[in-house]
């Protein structure tokens, strides 16, 4: 039997997969050819997507598709973080301690470092946009999850850029729709830090250099999903991943833009967010829809989104493109587990020693779980949670602190 000390140390996606292979029923693979147009996500719906994905679906293993139709040397991984138990395995923790682990990590960040390009696995193969046959979709099998989607999407790209005024960096995950052979639209929820950087650059009439790293250490993906006020403007969330691994995330300079990329990513897209350029998200399909979202509906396509002009795509040899279904438990875990840590941190500041734990469940559970020292758990109250996840958790925590015997009436 493999002991904890014998398990592979995770520093990139491949070492994460090696770790998962030590656990039963956490990772499966198929050599059957699959089409990235709706078929790939349709298969995984039955294997392990769960969440609010159309029934029947279930909690199941992550899945590697080794043969993608139209792509000779590209694999696609889906569902890596679609199980809380699997997230715990990948972070060397237990499911019930994930909130505590992330709270500790965000409080003790380890900043990323830069390594030379020669040491960066992400640049083993280089495709320049100036090449005559360059085309994003000829190189990368970006999946289309449903026939109604606005187009092929990259759903797990770590978008990394710098504030053009201060040089401070930020990493986040955004909805990225392929719009042309060298163009990608980028959707920003209002208030996102990268959008602040983009607007500063645009106000100066400048493009914002950006890298999109796909297929990375899952600690980076989890850390990237922290939001303010836990990680304010200027806080580089890569430092959370550094704390989770007790070693800095390694970055490397991009080849074609003034940005840095995650050095051991499977795939990196280099580009610039263009000033003053907008595109309709569903310009090619006119479906009016974007893609499935975690509350269980298909999001509306946006009328005018900023555009990334792609300058290069680099990748490892025999690369793995990582993706997720927006309505799956993977999406909920990415958003929910950092939210648990954030709420735990806020509540501990307001009510020291009162809350033992916080749980932000998948919308499929429809109730909150938590723990207050010397009190009933929130889960025992059996109060329903809105499908909105984090917002529902915050509202319920406010209600619970008001009900706690007159103690701690400050809002959370």
Automatic annotation (TrEMBL):
<dbReference type="GO" id="GO:0006744">
    <property type="term" value="P:ubiquinone biosynthetic process"/>
</dbReference>
<dbReference type="GO" id="GO:0008694">
    <property type="term" value="F:4-hydroxy-3-polyprenylbenzoate decarboxylase activity"/>
</dbReference>
<feature type="domain" description="3-octaprenyl-4-hydroxybenzoate carboxy-lyase-like N-terminal">
    <location>
        <begin position="24"/>
        <end position="101"/>
    </location>
</feature>
<dbReference type="InterPro" id="IPR048304">
    <property type="entry name" value="UbiD_Rift_dom"/>
</dbReference>
<dbReference type="InterPro" id="IPR049383">
    <property type="entry name" value="UbiD-like_N"/>
</dbReference>
<protein>
    <submittedName>
        <fullName>Phenolic acid decarboxylase subunit C</fullName>
        <ecNumber>4.1.1.-</ecNumber>
    </submittedName>
</protein>
<feature type="compositionally biased region" description="Basic and acidic residues">
    <location>
        <begin position="397"/>
        <end position="406"/>
    </location>
</feature>
<dbReference type="Pfam" id="PF01977">
    <property type="entry name" value="UbiD"/>
</dbReference>
<dbReference type="GO" id="GO:0005829">
    <property type="term" value="C:cytosol"/>
</dbReference>
<dbReference type="Pfam" id="PF20695">
    <property type="entry name" value="UbiD_N"/>
</dbReference>
<keyword id="KW-0456">Lyase</keyword>
<feature type="region of interest" description="Disordered">
    <location>
        <begin position="365"/>
        <end position="412"/>
    </location>
</feature>
<dbReference type="InterPro" id="IPR002830">
    <property type="entry name" value="UbiD"/>
</dbReference>
<feature type="domain" description="3-octaprenyl-4-hydroxybenzoate carboxy-lyase-like Rift-related">
    <location>
        <begin position="117"/>
        <end position="325"/>
    </location>
</feature>
């Amino acid at each position: 039997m493999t002991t904890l000390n014998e398990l592979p140390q995770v520093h990139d996606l491949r070492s994460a997969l090696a770790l998962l292979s030590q656990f039963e029923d956490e990772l499966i693979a198929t050599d059957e050819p699959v089409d990235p147009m709706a078929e790939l996500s349709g298969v995984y719906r039955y294997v392990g997507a769960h969440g609010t994905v159309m029934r029947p679906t279930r909690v199941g293993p992550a899945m590697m598709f080794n043969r993608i139709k139209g792509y000779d040397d590209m694999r696609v991984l889906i569902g890596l973080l679609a199980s809380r138990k699997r997230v715990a395995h990948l972070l060397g923790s237990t499911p019930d301690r994930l909130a505590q682990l992330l709270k500790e990590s965000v409080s003790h960040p380890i900043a990323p470092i830069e390594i030379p390009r020669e040491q960066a696995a992400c640049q083993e193969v280089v495709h320049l946009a100036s090449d005559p046959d360059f085309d994003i979709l000829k190189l990368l099998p970006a999946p289309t999850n449903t026939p109604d989607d606005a187009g092929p999407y990259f759903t797990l790209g770590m978008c990394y850029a710098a504030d053009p005024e201060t040089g401070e960096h930020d990493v986040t995950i955004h909805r990225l729709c392929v719009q042309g052979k060298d163009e990608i639209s980028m959707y920003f929820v209002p208030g996102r830090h990268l959008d602040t950087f983009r607007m500063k650059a645009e106000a100066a009439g400048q493009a914002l250099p950006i890298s999109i790293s796909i297929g990375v250490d899952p600690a980076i993906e989890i850390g990237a999903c922290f939001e303010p006020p836990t990680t304010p403007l200027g806080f580089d969330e890569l430092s959370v991943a550094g704390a989770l691994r007790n070693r800095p995330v390694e970055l490397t300079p991009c080849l074609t833009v003034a940005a840095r990329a995650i050095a051991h990513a499977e795939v990196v897209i280099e580009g610039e967010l263009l000033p003053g350029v907008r595109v309709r998200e569903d310009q090619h399909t006119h479906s009016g829809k974007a893609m499935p979202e975690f509350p269980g509906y298909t999001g509306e396509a946006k009328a005018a989104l900023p555009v990334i002009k792609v300058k290069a795509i680099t990748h490892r040899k025999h690369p793995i493109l990582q993706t997720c279904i927006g309505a799956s438990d993977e999406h909920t875990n990415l958003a929910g587990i950092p939210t648990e840590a954030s709420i735990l941190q806020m509540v501990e500041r307001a009510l020291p020693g009162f809350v033992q734990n916080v749980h932000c469940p998948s919308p499929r559970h429809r109730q909150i779980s938590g723990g207050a020292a010397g009190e009933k758990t929130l889960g025992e109250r059996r109060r329903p949670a809105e499908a909105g996840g984090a917002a529902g958790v915050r509202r319920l925590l406010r209600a619970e602190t008001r009900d706690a015997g007159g103690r701690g009436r400050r809002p959370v």
